Amino acid sequence: MSDRITQTALDALATTAVREVLARQFQVEACAATPDLTARGADAATLGASVPLTGSALRGAVSLRLSPALARLLVERLVGQACGSPAEAQDLCQELCNILAGRMAATLGHEGAVIELGTPSLLGPHMTGDTAPAADLIHSSHWLCEHEPLVFALELRTIP
């Protein structure tokens, strides 16, 4: 698949996915940011999730980190009421990661890749997702949504 999709194309697909999912599902504008702007929210309280991707010709993962304040806002936008607990914020983080992983799988499917999603899992404060060793294609982007940080990553490794 990496010979069919370039790094530039993957970056464009991922950027579009993040912006459109947040706008359509949550009515939140995602503004591209630099790592130093999102680092201010990257403390031990940051929520993280990962979804493994598998296919006949690739392995990889989608991962996501966001501030608890952003998670609470997204819960409110999704269900129409205030976030009631840290568990709801964690569930939202996993669900958003799963939505983005599904969007990327569908988008890459248009490029000829057959991808299955694994089960979303929470990440600890300093952990990354089940990333693909020696990934062929890596996308990482930093965002501000309602002035709160979000970091999205996608790693893919082709299998001979």
Annotate the secondary structure layout.
Elements: H1 7-26, E1 30-33, H2 35-39, E2 47-54, E3 58-66, H3 68-79, H4 86-109, E4 116-117, E5 121-123, E6 137-145, E7 148-158
Antiparallel strand pairs: 1-6, 2-3, 2-4, 2-5, 3-7, 6-7
Helix pairs in contact: 1-4, 3-4
When the domains are counted, the total is 1
CATH class, named Alpha Beta
The CATH architecture classification is 3-Layer(aba) Sandwich
Largest sheet: 7 strands, antiparallel
Number of strands: 7
Residue stretches low in confidence (pLDDT < 50, at least 5 long) are: none
The amount of helix comes to 25-40%
Q: CATH topology, what is it called?
A: Chemotaxis protein chec
CATH homologous superfamily label? CheC-like
